[in-house]
Each structure stands twice: as structure tokens, then as C-alpha cells.
Design brief:
Length: 212
């Protein structure tokens, strides 16, 4: 995890270096910075045995680059470490359980940005997500050997594509952002799995600071 954070920092620094070159082209429109905030995440499209879920909170942090293409249009790629998850109740082979799942993703959204004025920007675009870690806190009666094997062989999908929309409000160098995102692929590769299958959905609020 420490190495992944180092990689994220290096990528953000590279974006800032590239950004300094862009500022020579158009200093007024190009921006780069850092951001951090919270996620409220849950899942949808769930399939499983008596599977139901509730939202939970997590953190998000990373960097962004705003690249101008025309006067009011541009691209805004971001690189984020994003914690998601859910709390659920369900059953596996008739054994009830309570599951608190926390996942950490490397999220890379690439937004098309519409700058309506000097303060407000509307964003929408695809997002690539890579699963870095998953932690499960499970409360259940002792699982049988068969149930343990089902959990152990669960085929978790690491690469996921989704869609994100949002708004940025800029006040001098401070950027207030809200996002809403949906995964397009289920978390599980095996369509016959008995463990919960779902797609992530989340609301995100962050505060950013423009370095450039």
C-alpha cells in the first residue's frame, strides 16, 4: 500500500510538471492541483442469497489536471485513491451473515469539462478503477468447509469501468467538487458465484487546491 501511495504521488508530480508546460500556452485556462474528501458508497444490481446492503463512508484523495481545448470545453483527468464499500446482511448456503466490506480503488476518471463561467464547471466521463485492496469483517455462525471454499475461491474483478458526473465550483485557488459515480461491471467475474455480486455506486465530496 505504501508503494502505491508513492506511485500516486509521483504521477501527480508528473502531471504538475506537464502542467507547467501547458501554462505557457494558456495560463488562464490550464489548472492542476490536489484534492481530498469523503465518499458515501453503496452497491446496486446486487445478486445473492437474501443479499441487502446499506451505505458506508470512506475517504478519497488525489490530484487533477484541467486541460483546455476550446474556450469553454476541455478535458479533466484525475487520479484518486478512493475508499468504498458497504454493510450487508445475507446468507450463504442457508447460513446467515453480516458483512462490512471496505475496498480501496485507484480511480482514474477522464472528464469532458464544460466551463459555464469563471466559477462553475460541469463534468462527465468514463472512469477506470483498479482494486488495490479489500477488507471484509464478517459476523456469522461458523462456516462449513464447503462455505469456506466458496468464499476462498471467489473471483473478484480487479479492473472495472464506470461513469462519473459532477460539478466543480472554483473560488480563487480553492475548488469544491461533488461527484456521482456508477460502475458498469459487477465485482465478481464468476456469474455462478453464491457470494454477493454487485456494482459500486457512490457520492463524493472533495475540497481541492490549485497548485497551478
Amino acid at each position: 500500500m505504501y508503494k502505491l501511495i508513492q506511485l500516486l504521488v509521483i504521477i501527480i508530480l508528473l502531471l504538475v510538471v506537464v502542467g507547467k508546460g501547458w501554462t505557457q500556452v494558456d495560463q488562464e485556462l490550464f489548472h492542476a492541483g490536489l484534492k481530498a474528501g469523503i465518499n458515501s458508497s453503496n452497491v446496486y444490481g446486487g445478486i445473492g442469497q437474501d443479499f441487502s446492503s446499506d451505505a458506508k463512508y470512506g475517504w478519497v484523495a488525489g490530484g487533477f489536471v484541467s486541460i483546455p481545448l476550446w474556450e469553454h470545453f476541455g478535458l479533466q483527468p484525475e487520479i484518486l485513491l478512493s475508499q468504498k464499500g458497504f454493510e450487508a446482511t445475507g446468507s450463504l448456503l442457508d447460513a446467515p451473515y453480516q458483512l462490512n466490506r471496505t475496498t480501496t480503488y485507484l480511480d482514474i476518471p477522464v472528464f469532458i469539462a464544460l466551463k459555464t463561467n469563471s466559477y462553475l464547471t460541469i463534468l462527465a466521463g468514463p472512469q477506470f478503477s483498479y482494486l488495490l485492496s479489500q477488507k471484509d469483517e464478517l459476523a456469522a455462525s461458523p462456516f462449513s468447509v464447503q462455505q469456506q471454499q466458496i468464499v476462498a475461491t471467489d473471483q473478484i474483478r480487479e479492473n472495472i469501468i464506470g461513469v462519473v458526473i459532477g460539478l466543480d465550483v472554483q473560488v480563487k485557488r480553492v475548488v469544491f467538487s461533488v461527484r456521482s459515480g456508477w460502475d458498469a461491471l459487477q465485482n465478481n467475474k464468476d456469474v455462478t458465484s453464491l457470494t454477493p455480486r454487485y456494482k459500486n455506486i457512490w457520492l463524493q465530496a472533495t475540497v481541492g487546491f490549485r497548485i497551478i
